[in-house]
Model the fold of this input.
Amino acid sequence: LGKKISGALRKLANRTVVDEEALNEMLNEVSRALLEADVNVKLVQALRQSVKRKVNLEELAAGVNRRKLIQKAVFDELCNMLNPGTSPPPLKKGKPNVVMFVGLQGNGKTTTCVKYAYYHQRKGWKTALVCADTFRAGAFDQLKQSATKARVPFYGSHTEADAVKVAREGVDLFKKEKYELIIVDTSGRHKQDTALFEEMEQLAEEVQPNSIIFVMDGTMGQSVYDQALAFRQRVNVGSVIVTKLDGHAKGGGALSAVSATKSPIVFIGTGEMLDDLEPFAPQSFVQRLLGLGDISGFVNAVKEAGVDQNPDILKRIQEGVLTLRDLYDQFQSVLKMGPMGKVLSMFPGMQDLIPKGKEREGTLRVKKFLSIMNSMTDEELDNPKVQFNQSRMIRISRGSGRDVKDVEDLLSEYKRLSKLVSRVGKNKALKTGDFSQL
Ligand code: GDP
Ligand code: MG
Done:
């Protein structure tokens, strides 16, 4: 019993003193968060080792905030792991740069090729697309359609089966026309597709790309390392793009892709639209990995937007509690900032409420919710434990002139967002180690 008590006392003291045990405990929390974010077990182990090596508790001078130092060590180490120490192959203005995209089927190559083209075209590059996917039916049509939307010239064939031939023709054509950025989309392939891997090698041999980009699906977990390695062994991958980071995926597989290809991440894909491509920012990515992205991104965006925010709300979110009044304040800020406000997509769960492309409908729905909440009592707004039974809902519906169905709709949204917030509240790393303050 004595041991137990002293253990508990030590834990209490943890708030100010960090000893070996507290360090381990903290590393356990962080490791768990990273494993949940799909970071490879071996990488998590490596991180623990190097943080332990770097943080020498004995040597830390008295008076230094040790906890902060450990947090910083974890944060820096993760940023470090995202940095393979090589730069992406540079694109040279005024020269014909050929960039080839490779990766598994469905990972977002074609979508990303066109976004990448669109991004550079807007920056003044003379850009064109070549569809060297002759394998999947409809591949050329898909590229053609979105390239047309992006107003990027393209080349491909509906009938030619020889991908190498199409690639050569397209690249030659655009080189002749003095294009500066010629992007070659290839077909998706799996490790076991020997023939397609050979075709990929031949393509690279033929068009001699200045840069090969490996496209990975951000929702993929432990399988990424092997896949990325398989590509790296056959062609000279120089950089990585991680797609589908607009959803709930934390993208931990990206660390594996960096480690397997020894190449840096250059962009992330955050949606299906043309402009949903963002230059990679390691620090916010690490925050996302640790489960902090939502909140700290949210805080920053709110600060940037200069919107006055109920100061209690962030604290309550960290505690894992959301009241209807918090939601009310949140809805009002969202309307004030405009439907496209970045804040929208950073507040946990908000992006689903006003989805991109459906801003008008989403905004109307939020306005409806606000009018319903105007008919609620203080008790209903402030006490998350209130039960909304039928008679309550009918009263609110009458008071606001809305259907009971709409009241139910609001309450089910509230329930959904509450769940998200309580998940954030359960994230110990967020509670104990406030990485966002580093
Ligand atoms: P490919 O087989 O590698 O060429 O993959 P595609 O470009 O055809 O993309 C496969 C699917 O993923 C399509 O439905 C795309 O719209 C979708 N997709 C690609 N990138 C993203 C992204 O960043 N976010 C989301 N949500 N979907 C994406
Ligand atoms: Mg494709």
Q: What stands out?
A: Strands lie at 97-102, 127-132, 154-155, 181-186, 211-217, 239-243, 265-269, 277-279.
